[in-house]
Automatic annotation (TrEMBL):
Pathway: Pyrimidine metabolism; CTP biosynthesis via de novo pathway; UDP from UMP (UMPK route): step 1/1. Its EC number is 2.7.4.22. Belongs to the UMP kinase family. HAMAP family: PyrH_B (MF_01220_B). InterPro entries: AceGlu_kinase-like_sf, Asp/Glu/Uridylate_kinase, Uridylate_kinase, Uridylate_kinase_bac. The gene is pyrH. It is an enzyme of class 2 (transferase). Homohexamer. Residues 2-208 form the Aspartate/glutamate/uridylate kinase domain. Keywords: ATP-binding, Cytoplasm, Kinase, Nucleotide-binding, Pyrimidine biosynthesis, Transferase. One of its GO terms (biological process) is UDP biosynthetic process. It comes from the Bacteria. It is found in: Cytoplasm. It comes from Roseivivax marinus. This is Uridylate kinase.
Length: 238
């Protein structure tokens, strides 16, 4: 399961989307598929709108989250179009919100069949409910679809640090990290609810940066890169 942040589709550009950034994301997805992985992706919408800024806009959080969920669908449509334009691989867009003119409703067994047929599955709309970021559905869908791990590809960072590297130049990068410590220290690389769910179901999480060349494929092939979160390892640094 690849968790793609919405910001990765903009990658620091002044606009909502960047063609270069989207092409880089597609390249990572296709590399995973070419290397033999069954690829599903949960897509964020932070490049378009975030529910957490509802107070800044003086609107209800539920309405703000609705906008954010629709943003993930817009991102999914664009990713689907870009993948299909650059490869012969079949792509299925599945949404927790029912929009039949655009994509299929998310049905677990149907998603599993798509993966078995070597189709790339793009999962949008979060889980269709407010008050959650797309971190949570990335873990939930990974569990439902019996994925081996969640590969959280972040924009602007290359893993999980003990403190903010932008504020602390001496911040150390974790090589391996336990869920227990991440939750206890309230590290902000992923929602607490998502971390708790991953811990409960022993779902390994890898955090890497999109700006690390070929990061997704390197993790798949066993290379040590970014940060691995699991309770089966000790806490270590690079």
């Amino acid at each position: 399961m690849v968790k793609i942040s919405g910001e990765a589709l903009a990658s620091g550009s002044s606009g909502v989307f960047s063609d270069d950034a989207i092409s880089a994301v597609v390249k990572e997805i296709l590399k995973l598929h070419d290397d033999g992985a069954e690829v599903s992706c949960v897509i964020g919408g932070g490049n378009i709108f975030r529910g957490s800024i509802s107070s800044d806009w003086n609107i209800e959080r539920v309405e703000a989250d609705n906008v954010g969920m629709l943003g993930t669908i817009a991102n999914g449509i664009l990713l689907r179009a870009k993948i299909e334009a650059t490869s012969d691989i079949e792509v299925r867009l599945m949404s927790a919100l029912t929009i039949p003119q655009i994509g299929e409703p998310y049905i677990r067994r149907r998603a599993q069949r798509h993966l078995e047929k070597r189709r790339i599955v793009l999962l949008c709309g979060g889980i269709g409910e407010p008050y959650l970021t797309t971190d949570y559905p990335s873990v939930q869908r990974a569990i439902e679809l019996d994925c081996d791990c969640v590969l959280a590809m972040k924009n602007g960072i290359d893993g999980v640090y003990e403190s903010d590297p932008k504020k602390n130049a001496d911040a150390k990068l974790y090589k391996t990290l336990t869920f227990e410590k991440a939750i206890k220290d309230r590290l902000t690389f992923m929602d607490q609810a998502a971390l708790v769910l991953a811990q409960q179901h022993k779902m390994r999480v890898h955090v890497v940066g999109f700006d690390q060349s070929g990061a997704a494929g390197r993790v798949l092939n066993g290379e040590t890169i970014g940060t691995t979160i699991t309770d089966d390892a000790d806490v270590t640094f690079y």
